[in-house]
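Memo to structure team: turn this sequence into structure tokens by end of day. - J.P.
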Amino acid sequence: MNRTIYTLVRGVSWRFAVALIILCVGASAHATTTIDFESLSNGTVVTNQFAGQGITFSSAGGEVMLVTTQASYQSTPPNFLCTGSAAGGIDCVGTVIFDFATPVNGLQFDAVGNQNSIGTSFAQADIYQNGILTVSNLGLLVSLGNFLPDHQDLSAYSNITQVVIHNNTDPAGTGYDTVSFTQSQASVPEPATMLLLGTGIVGLAAARRRKKQS
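Reply from structure team:
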């Protein structure tokens, strides 16, 4: 059993143990993950550095995702992502791919640096839900332009496993920043699994009480 859970239930009542499990499961089901790339240095090729948080990044056509440090872009400055060459240099117009280890909900991110007219599309997105392409060529829109973040809200789509952003038409290209999402409820352990875990913890607490009484 996880040592942290074991430590928490030592000497507590079974009612408290069950309540603790319910609270922990509820918290994990609704925790929001936010990636802002501030932990990486300028020019870093971004692939699986955030795999532990459930997301990896890639491009296509021989390009990669690179960190660029430009504080004037107002999302979470100074760092954001752009497509470019592994040999160095960014172009910000290539394909951008978000891959999720488990399905996620509430996906949102900022697109920065767009010069297209407000209200028009700067790129299109393909959305995969539970590994299946369900939305093709969704227009991603410019809302503020210039150095301001054009916030993209894909929270209407659940159980997202991949997003592919392609066909960028912005003359200045587009950067990506402040990617946030929550783990899908489908990825949280089933009630039967949690019942078994809860039963085990209650059993542990009871066994400890019996040992003390003998």
